[in-house]
Amino acid sequence: MKTTIKLINGRLTVIETKEPEPILQTNLDTTESHEDTKVEETVSNITFQDGNYHLNIGAYDKRLCPHCNYKFEKEVTRKRKCPECKNTILVKTNYELKKKMLLKEEQLDNYEKALSNYWRKQGEDRKKQWITNFFKAHGTTYEEEKRKSSSGSSNPYDIAWGMLNGIASEKAVEMQWGLFRNVRISMGDLLKQEGKLEKALFFYLEVCYLDINGATNTTNRPKLLEEYPPFRPQDGQLFPGIVHYVEEISHELNLSIKDIKVKFIEHNNRLYKGNSLVPLSADKAWVSLEKELLVRNN
Ligand SMILES: [Zn+2]
Predict the structure, then answer these.
(1) What whole-number distance in Å separates Cα of residue 24 and Cα of residue 41?
(2) Ligand 1 center to 40 CA (angstroms)
(3) Which of 5, 154, 253, 270 is the most buried (most CB within 10 A)?
(4) Would you call 6 helix, strand, or coil by DSSP?
């Protein structure tokens, strides 16, 4: 029985085969017990392109030089030269298997490539998980929304974007501006997650504008609308979580308060100037946000 670890679909997978592994060199240290015969192969003829590090892990566990199988008295904890063959031995961690291993210097390039692939894969997995949770939080799934979508795209971020656009228009027509505002946050979150920070910032600035204007949920029946307007600046308030996003992205993009002001006014004027429902102009609303940003800055 032979155990190998191979990279299959970007995952390290343990494979057991009956084929005997060729013994390349016998460890002459007779004090070793039977269990140790498994690692009595040298690492030399094994290719590492496929992330096959099982012998390196064995070398660490058994305290063997990966070049010549010299047996160390103590655990090898950092880079050193083998007293027997004089080759350099590196101590590295196999992140996928969470195990330490002893590497030859010539394995370093491949190890570093495998490592960066590993982190890239981790990032992709996280991104996938994020969007799955995103659909779930909106009471739906990617598959469901894909079916409803007419865009033809299969990118989950595009599908989610289309879905949010649809909900936003719906809420605006229904005079549910409180819910509309929540959808705009989700759109910002989606852009932020995609790394489109500047676009995300526009959405958070818009949410601040709607919050200062006291966006709320009402009805589109004209009679009631007079009594219950969708925006009530007297109840308006900024929410710390959203202001924090604005600060975070501005910091990341190296934006000054003046830069934020320009973006806030331009963006909100473009969307809401001439909208008679929204009482406070972008210029007026900016005063509140600026005050909040300055307070938080000190
Ligand atoms: Zn050696």
Answers:
(1) 5
(2) 13
(3) 5
(4) strand
Please write the tens of the pLDDT for every residue from 127-175. Answer: 899 999 999 999 999 999 999 988 888 899 999 999 999 999 999 999 9
Query: Which residues 6+ apart lie within 8 Å of 123 measured at CB?
Result: none
Architecture of domain 139-297: Alpha Horseshoe (1.25)
Taking the centre of ligand 1 as the mean of its atom positions, its distance from the CA of residue 193, in whole angstroms, is: 48
Which residues lie near ion ligand 1 (Cβ < 5 Å)? Answer: 65, 67-68, 70, 82, 84-85
Instruction: Give start and end residues of each alpha helix (H) in the chain.
Output: 54-62, 108-137, 142-148, 156-173, 177-193, 197-212, 222-227, 240-252, 257-272, 282-297
Show Cβ contacts of residue 120 under 8 Å, excluding neighbours closer than 6 positions.
none
Alpha carbon distance 65, 22 (integer Å): 19
Q: Which two tokens stand for residue 74?
A: 């103590």
From the list 239, 238, 237, 262, the residue with the least C-alpha distance to 250 is 262
pTM, two decimal places: 0.69
Å from CA of 46 to ligand 1 middle: 16
56 CA to centre of ligand 1 in angstroms: 13
Regions of the chain where pLDDT drops below 50: 1-2, 15-41, 43-50
In eight-state DSSP terms, residue 23 is: P
Query: Side-chain half-sphere of 4: how many Cα atoms within 13 Å?
Result: 16
* 16 sits in which H/E element: strand 11-17
